[in-house]
């Protein structure tokens, strides 16, 4: 996500400096090498590495004591434990994510559309990509494959034992991941926890692949009936899966490009930066027009 944001900001004409470990290279940014201990340590030591003339500092990990000498914000990329307050100047990833953490500012993640392979003619398999943790709902995807007899490919971090129609393909990245997304009849994401965002959702949509998921977390802010189906029980998801291929691959990609491209994300962060510079506070986030708030 950081790489996509840097690319989007650069395409909008902004200069970006990235404080990162040595040997980091990222197109669109001037990379400044910082020792890892300093990068993750107290903020005053990190401030010494800031180039002169910086307008705003944007952190991507929790900083409990942000600087008071330069406008600062930080994006929360996960969920805090219930009852824990987010650090100061936090931007969340969705309306639901912000609401659950007691803040109002959020910006949806975005990705570069051309990083994905679009395929209008789908192959005969469904896909699950993610950590094989019960909260991610992979067991629902497997149960659905067993009940319907549909072929399911599961990509994740450890090798469980599957039979018949379910095939484990291991951890995937790069071209292999792009090909799996592009060829899939649909992506299963039956989340059983509150997803802050869910990058695999838009990875699938950019590939022209519709999504089957639950209504947990940010999913209703990303998926519409035109590009997928959201249900709250396994039985209802299985029923919805019987017609999921009627969604247009072109509509899936167009939806992702309209709301979740790297440039759309960068434009929204620029709005946040400018509001922070002008008023000293973060603005409320802007939900997708079909989101119920």
List keywords for this structure.
293 residues, alpha/beta, Rossmann fold, 2 domains, six-stranded parallel β-sheet, three-stranded parallel β-sheet, 32% helix, elongated
Task: Characterize the structure shown.
With 293 residues, the chain is α/β, with parallel strands linked by helices. The chain has two domains: 2-111 and 263-279, 3-Layer(aba) Sandwich (Rossmann fold); 115-259, Glycogen Phosphorylase B (Rossmann fold). 32% of the residues lie in helices and 14% in strands. The protein is built from eleven helices and eleven strands. The protein has a six-stranded parallel β-sheet with strand order 8-7-6-9-10-11, sandwiched between helices. A three-stranded parallel β-sheet has the order 3-4-5, with no helix packed on it. Strand 9 (186-189), helix 7 and strand 10 form a beta-alpha-beta unit. Helix 1 (2-11) packs across helix 11 (262-279), helix 5 packs across helix 9 and helix 7 (199-206) packs across helix 10 (249-259). The longest helix is centred in the last third of the chain and has 18 residues, at 262-279. The protein is elongated. The protein starts with a helix and ends in a 14-residue tail after the last helix. 36% of the residues are buried. The model has no long low-confidence stretch (mean pLDDT 93).
């Amino acid at each position: 996500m950081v790489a996509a944001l840097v690319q989007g900001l650069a395409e909008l004409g902004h200069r970006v400096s990235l404080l990162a470990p040595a040997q980091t290279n990222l197109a669109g940014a001037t990379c400044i090498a910082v020792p890892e201990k300093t990068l993750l340590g107290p903020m005053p030591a990190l401030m010494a590495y800031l180039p002169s003339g910086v307008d705003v500092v944007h952190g991507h990990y929790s900083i409990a004591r942000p600087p008071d000498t330069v406008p600062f914000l930080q994006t929360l990329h996960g969920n805090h434990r219930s009852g824990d307050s987010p650090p100061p100047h936090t931007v969340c990833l969705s309306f639901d994510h912000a609401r659950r953490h007691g803040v109002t500012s959020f910006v949806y993640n975005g990705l570069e559309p051309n990083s994905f392979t679009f395929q209008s003619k789908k192959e005969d398999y469904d896909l699950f990509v993610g950590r094989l943790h019960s909260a991610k709902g992979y067991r629902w995807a497997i149960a659905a494959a067993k009940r319907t007899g549909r072929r399911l490919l599961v990509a994740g971090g450890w090798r469980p034992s599957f039979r018949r129609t379910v095939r484990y393909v291991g951890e995937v990245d790069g071209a292999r991941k792009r090909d799996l997304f592009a060829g899939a009849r649909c992506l299963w994401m039956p989340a059983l926890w509150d997803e802050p965002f869910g990058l695999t959702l838009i990875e699938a949509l950019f590939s022209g692949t519709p999504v089957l998921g639950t209504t947990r977390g940010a999913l209703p802010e990303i998926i519409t009936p035109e590009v997928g189906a959201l249900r709250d029980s396994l039985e209802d998801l299985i029923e919805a899966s019987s017609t999921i291929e009627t969604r247009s691959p072109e509509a899936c990609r167009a939806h992702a490009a309209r709301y979740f491209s790297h440039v759309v994300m960068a434009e929204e962060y620029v709005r946040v930066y400018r509001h922070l510079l002008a008023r000293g506070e973060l603005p409320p986030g802007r939900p997708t027009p079909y989101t119920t708030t």
